[in-house]
Amino acid sequence: KYKERFCNLEKFVKELKERYSRWYNKTHGRRGALWMGRYKSVLVESTNKAEEYETGEDFTALHAISAYIDLNPVRACIVSDPKDYRWCGYAAALAGSKRCRYGLCEVMRVAQTSWKKNAHRYRLWLIGDAAVTDENAKSQLENERAREGKISPAELLRHKIKYFTDGVAIGGKAFINNQFRTHRKKFGKKRKQGAKPITSAGQPAESPSKLYSLRGFHGSS
């Protein structure tokens, strides 16, 4: 029973939060929930197979999740650029943290010692090709008209995406459909396929990586 808890991340975090909450409430003389929400976990594909994404740049689900986490302070309107938030991995890497640099190099599938050569690649995933410059600011309206209001992958990551926290899995279409077939009994009988493209406000994201999400456990759509 105890081994099962420590070998299952979800159960381990659940018990850790419960025990800490009881200790904290007792120590500070308070009652009620301590955390804002329940612990959630999402399966993320870490493949580096470029053929699944039809793009010259190996932008995978793991890249998207990493950038999404580093953009948390931007979505919270704490800073306008993640490099200015000292507690995010990207800022720590820029400040010289070897652990953070090694971690981001792992995400980019490059040698751990090549951070200086590849730091710009990760920044483009965070900021996008429209990294802020005076010229881009002047032509913002023209660019918006040219793309017909479509959202770029970098811009999409700056907004809260429910698929990254409420989904079951994130990855390429083949990966998601394989997970769907493996756990077919946990979905509704009318459901024919598992992979659903990640969208924003009902509009498909114009992402060359073509990330898909698996949602709807317990028979929901």
From TrEMBL:
Region (Disordered) location: 186-221
Top-rank lineage group of the source organism: Bacteria
InterPro entries: Transposase_17_sf
Gene3D superfamilies: Transposase IS200-like
GO MF: DNA binding; transposase activity
GO biological process: DNA transposition
Alphabetical list of PANTHER family matching this protein: TRANSPOSASE IS200-LIKE DOMAIN-CONTAINING PROTEIN, TRANSPOSASE, Y1_TNP DOMAIN-CONTAINING
Protein name stated in the entry: Transposase
